[in-house]
Write a structure and sequence with these properties.
The complex is a heterodimer of chains A (about 180) and B (about 350). With about 180 residues, chain A is of the alpha/beta class. Chain A has one domain (about 1-175): Pyruvate-ferredoxin Oxidoreductase, domain 3 (3-Layer(aba) Sandwich), CATH 3.40.920. Chain A is built from 6 helices and 6 strands, in the order E-H-E-E-E-H-E-E-H-H-H-H. In chain A, helix 2 (about 75-80) links the parallel strand 4 (about 70) and strand 5 (about 90-95). Chain B is α/β, with parallel strands linked by helices and about 350 residues long. Chain B has 2 domains: about 5-180 and about 210-235, 3-Layer(aba) Sandwich (Rossmann fold); about 240-355, 3-Layer(aba) Sandwich (Rossmann fold). Chain B has helices spanning about 10-20, 35-40, 55-70, 80-85, 85-95, 120-125, 145-160, 170-175, 215-235, 255-270, 290-295, 315-320, 340-355, and strands at about 5, 25, 50, 75, 100-105, 135-140, 165-170, 175-180, 240, 250, 275-280, 280-285, 300-305, 325-330. Chain B has a 7-stranded mixed beta sheet, sandwiched between helices. A 5-stranded mixed beta sheet of chain B has the order 9-11-10-13-14, sandwiched between helices. In chain B, strands 1-8 form a two-stranded antiparallel sheet. The relative contact order of chain B is 0.13. At the A-B interface, helix 1 and strand 2 of A face helix 8, strand 8 and helix 10 of B.
Chain lengths: ~180, ~350
């Protein structure tokens, strides 16, 4: 198994955090993983992306031209990276704010209304977790239980209630793959 | 031991603390700011001192002062900031003071860009300051190596009484990767009986200077440095290699491009091209001898040097190979990072040309 994942969106959408969660979970499951952020001179509201590699083998290059999966949280990200996704790969689209469809026919498209679901759950901030849930459900790359353990470790004390909220977001995201 | 996920810069800072670093002096610059940030919180926990200095020049001179008192001290910066520290590095070599300097290189010249680069190779390996001096330059290609090398750098600095540089790049500083904390084999280190830390009943004062105004004395001192550098070249030269036996094309790279070149070599192998990778882990001293041996193999048709520069380590490779085989170069500059495909394509092109 080797995944090369580009995660891209506006600054503030939690794209770096999706990447970090993937890598953290992968490491907990004994995989090799790298996370490379774009750290250009970006402004608030500008674009942000990170490149993640998950692999059973030690990771050589942490950067890549052709992702096996693209997570596009906004339209500019879809436009920019769609042409590079490997044939047979998957594009995850945040359909709450991206009206356009994936044009490529040689990749799988998964539409996830991340922001709409996050709003329904009562917290806009978990829209990235909705997408993470969809990613895990679609690829089977990681176990949801690993993410739960990570969340339990991350949110303690007064923040412990956020574990359930984030888990709900993951589940709702996963449900987008059904039917 | 369990693997832990660390960001490069923070991992380097923690490694320094674990190696007994007690003083950090620095001035902010992207892409290494997480090092001073981490140190500002961490050093006070271990009884250490963090100072955000008024300038890079002040920072390196604070390292000089702390090192002169026998304390393990370090500074970190990125390219333009390291330029400003050259005077102090030269002075530390002359005062024979140990210290660790981290350079997470970014694109140049001048203020350049904040993206990864390797454009300070000449500065690091040839001495960016004045005088006949060297610094040991360790070149990690991933975070594990950055952590291990940082811990060892303090021992090397103390053993040889000189600054040791960690030559990383913006990507190593900014990326995250799992690492394991090892116990680095401890070296037997001489006591710091030269330190200016109080007379303690000695019959003489310890005096540390970089000025030797009498020419014969000065020559003698320079000769002693020469002997030290020869000893280091014999004992501390390090490299890693992969599939170099019987390879047809030899890729040579250090730091981030080395791991990209590793993936390129795997791609070439998949196409039936025997590609080897030679990766200097010390760029001074440079592993010339081993490189020449590999290049001398009959199977080797060409050598491709890959850097994030216009061709700096290239010169060390040419010096090592001495014209025995064609040496070609592929570089990206100004903060651009070479891709796996670019390196593999270039290797194939070079092979077509030399066959």
């Amino acid at each position: 198994m080797k995944k090369q994942i580009t995660i891209s969106g506006f600054g503030g959408q939690g794209v770096m955090s999706i990447g970090k969660s993937l890598v953290e979970a992968a490491v907990a499951e004994g995989l090799h993983a790298t996370w490379v952020p774009s750290y250009g001179p970006e402004m608030r509201g500008g674009t942000a992306n990170c490149e993640v590699v998950l692999s059973e083998e030690p990771v050589g290059s942490p950067v890549f031209t052709y992702p096996t999966e693209l997570i596009a949280m906004n339209l500019p990200s879809l436009v920019k990276f769609e042409p590079f996704v490997t044939a047979g790969g998957t594009i995850f689209v945040n359909s709450s704010i991206i009206d356009e469809k994936v044009k490529r026919t040689d990749v799988r498209a998964v539409y996830v209304p991340c922001d709409t679901i996050a709003d329904e759950l009562g917290n806009k901030k978990v829209s990235n977790m909705v997408m993470l849930g969809a990613y895990i459900a679609a690829t089977g790359a990681l176990r949801t239980e690993t993410i739960r353990q990570m969340l339990a470790h991350m949110f303690t004390g007064p923040k412990a209630k956020l574990v359930e909220l984030n888990m709900q977001a993951l589940e709702k995201g996963a449900q987008c793959l059904e039917g | 031991m369990a693997k832990e996920l660390w960001k490069g810069n923070e991992a380097v800072a923690e490694a320094a603390v674990r190696a007994g670093c007690k003083c950090f002096f620095g001035y902010p610059i992207t892409p290494q700011n997480e090092i001073p940030e981490y140190m500002s919180a961490r050093l006070p926990q271990v009884g250490g001192v963090f100072i955000q200095s008024e300038s890079e020049l002040a920072a390196i001179n604070m390292v000089y002062g702390a090192a002169a008192s026998g304390v393990r001290a370090m500074t970190s910066s990125s390219s333009p900031g390291i330029s400003l520290k050259q005077e102090g590095i030269s002075a530390m070599c002359s005062g024979e003071l140990p210290g660790v300097v981290v350079n997470m290189m970014r694109g140049g010249p001048g203020l350049g860009t904040i993206q990864p680069s390797q454009c300070d190779y000449f500065q690091a390996t040839r001495g960016g300051g004045n005088g006949d001096y060297r610094t040991i330059v360790l070149a990690p290609c991933n975070i594990q190596e950055a952590v291990d090398m940082t811990q060892e750098a303090f021992d090397l600095a103390d053993l040889y009484r000189m600054p040791v540089m960690i030559l990383g790049d913006g990507m190593i500083g900014q990326m995250m990767e799992p690492i394991e904390w090892h116990d680095i084999p401890k070296r037997e280190l001489p006591p710091k009986d030269w330190a200016a830390s109080g007379r303690k009943g000695r019959d003489h004062s310890n005096f540390i200077t970089s000025l030797r105004i009498d020419a014969p004395d000065s020559e003698q001192f320079n000769r002693s440095l020469e002997a030290k550098y020869k000893r280091i070249a014999e004992k501390e030269t390090r490299w890693a290699e992969q599939d170099t036996e019987g390879c047809e094309i030899l890729l040579v790279a250090y730091g981030t491009p080395a791991r990209i070149a590793q993936s390129a070599a795997e791609e070439l192998e998949a196409k039936g091209i025997r590609a080897g990778l030679f990766r200097p882990q010390t760029v001074w001293p440079f592993p010339s001898k081993r490189l020449a041996e590999i290049a001398a193999q009959e199977s080797v048709k060409a050598i491709l040097v890959v850097e994030m520069s216009l061709g700096q380590m290239l010169e060390d490779v040419q010096l090592a190979v001495e014209g025995a085989k064609p040496v070609r170069f592929y570089g990206r500059v100004g903060g651009m990072v070479p891709s796996v495909e670019e390196i593999a394509d270039e290797a194939e092109k070079v092979l077509r040309e030399v066959r």
